[in-house]
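Methods — Computational structure assignment.
A single polypeptide chain was analysed. Its primary sequence is given first, followed by the predicted tertiary structure written as structure tokens.
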Amino acid sequence: MTGPIAIALSGGIDSLVAAYLLKKQAKEIFGFHFLTGFEKPCDPGPTQIQALFQPLDIPVQVVDLKAQFRKTVVDYFAAAYQNGETPNPCLVCNPTIKFGVLLQKAIQLGATHLATGHYARADMGASGRYRLLKGVDGGKDQSYFLARLTQDQLSRACFPLGTWTKDQVRALAEEKELAPVARSESQDVCFVRDSSYADFLVETAGMVPRPGEIVDTQGRRVGAHEGLHRYTIGQRRGINCPASRPYYVIRIDTRRNRLVVGFKEERYTSECRVRNINWIVDVSDGPLAVDTRIRYRHRAAASTVTPDEKGGATVRFDEPQSSVTPGQGAVFYRGEEVVGGGWIQTADS
């Protein structure tokens, strides 16, 4: 990295310490604080963000991305629920907003790289391709959310916190008296905070609830639901159907507007389909032995991935996994390295 570096700044401790570390390397740095249109009155405003980074001699430009964020991230979020899937907005936002629109703006202003406060690492491997690696802090590793970055995006990505733990970040902030203006941790769904997902979909995204039947895995009616957007695979609470044992959501049948429920053991599956995979490493036509993470907090499971000619793959788990959820990201790992990631499909898609 020889030229200026842009950094995305939220005002939280991670972006603040990341900016401090970059500045300590005597880098030419400028910051971006982008607006999504879903900010709250309690959030740090542009003036606060700019003042926070003034002592570090980092100028901050406010970028209005409200229209792009609504169209690319929020509309995707609503459409996924409409289709009976459980979305993962961060997996969309990172390649399209942060390392998409914002990176292009940074390049236009002369930057060679865009830095963020993600706990992940990126470098060039021996093959000449850029690699995405886990952050060293296993509890904070965010490589999962970056699995859809392209080679070009990874070549311009900078993750100053990749070799740091969260405790080290907090300690450095205290030592250097770096006081963030955003005190709370960022959330996976940053635009839904004052309501439930279901209420947000109705009140903000304009979804119209369609009541329907709840059936068990044998097709027997056991109750009624007030809209499929209120449920996700593996969910236990909110089903409210009396039974000898607790019911869990097994499948969301949008075609017949039915919620399919079953008992705990019925949540497990040995195989799933993944579509639209972004491969970070070169892959052969044959099966790949990897560890697959099927949601962010999931412990990656040993599996075999067989790519197909349509840009997807079949994933077979060594041991059955619980609550494999359509719409979530399936991210493939070999040790510390991210191999690629795609979207889990519904069984009939």
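Note: DSSP finds seven helices and 17 strands in the chain.
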